[in-house]
Design goal:
five-stranded antiparallel beta sheet; alpha+beta; about 40% helix; 4 helices
Length: about 110
């Protein structure tokens, strides 16, 4: 009987984690549907930012990069995503993340501005 209760507790805790706002998303689309955690401005080129930020986050895994017209998305798995958007006078960098990555991603971006 105790095994069943312990197993039920593990399942309940796992389910609670999966619906937590700090839980990892299952896709890039789901991740970007969450609130943006911070936004920064930079006068550096998009390629310079992509290289610097991509290198900084590569400590956590191999970064993936998706290029679009005037926008670049960088992510490692799906605990966070960083977006670089071209603007009329520079680039805007924003990110969304599970709570555990907020400080680390902010520091990585901050070193590249």
């Amino acid at each position: 009987m105790k095994r069943t209760n312990g197993f039920a507790m593990i399942i309940a805790a796992s389910a609670a984690f999966m619906i937590s706002p700090n839980a990892e998303a299952s896709s890039l689309t789901e991740l970007w549907s969450r609130p943006v955690r911070a936004t920064y401005d930079s006068g550096k080129s998009a390629l310079a930012l992509e290289h610097c930020i991509g290198s900084a986050v590569s400590d956590w895994g191999a970064p993936s990069v998706l290029h679009g017209e005037g926008v670049i998305d960088i992510w490692v798995g799906v605990p966070f995503a960083i977006r670089i958007k071209d603007g009329p006078t520079g680039r805007t960098i924003s990110f969304t993340a599970s709570g555990a990555y907020d400080d680390r991603v902010a520091r990585a971006i901050g070193r590249c501005l």
